Amino acid sequence: MKAFFTLVLFTSVSINSYAKDVIVEIYKKKFIPSEITINAGDTVIWKNIEKRQYHSVWFKALVNEEPDYFFPGENYQYTFEKTGKFDYICGPHPKMTGVVNVIKP
């Protein structure tokens, strides 16, 4: 019985220690979902699934210059190493906003 609990505990710790990818889709000039909560070390991938519109993901508090645009079928990704609340916008469409909440794993 003791060995069983040790195995379960070890498995749970191992599973949670892996970073994961989280997808945010961009469609009809919206980030879907617009707010997410992830663990530090996770990567967010924004996928542009629009038919014709380009976008950007701009964390103004982190970088002064707007990043390059990405077009339909392309994506942008960022790995979050630090905890905190990170607001972002789409440079060409500033009414498009989103939030990434990063917590300790």
List the helices and strands and how they pair.
Layout: H1 2-16, E1 21-26, E2 31-32, E3 35-39, E4 43-48, E5 75-79, E6 84-90, E7 93-103
Parallel strand pairs: 1-4, 3-7
Antiparallel strand pairs: 1-2, 4-5, 6-7
Could you walk me through the main structural features you see in this protein, from its secondary elements to its overall organization?
This protein has 105 residues and is mainly beta. The chain has one domain: Sandwich (Immunoglobulin-like), CATH 2.60.40. The chain contains 1 helix and 7 strands, in the order H-E-E-E-E-E-E-E. The strands form 2 sheets. It has a 4-stranded mixed β-sheet, with no helix packed on it. It has a 3-stranded mixed β-sheet with strand order 3-7-6, with no helix packed on it. Strand 6 and strand 7 (93-103) form a beta hairpin. Residues 1-16 have low confidence and may be disordered.
- Arithmetic mean pLDDT: 88
Helix content: 10-25%
Measured distance between first and last alpha carbons:
28 Å
Per CATH, the superfamily is Cupredoxins -  blue copper proteins
pLDDT below 50 for ≥5 consecutive residues: which ranges? 1-16
Q: Helix tally?
A: 1
- Gyration radius (Cα, Å) is 17 Å
CATH class: Mainly Beta
The 3D shape can be described as globular
Order of helices and strands: HEEEEEEE
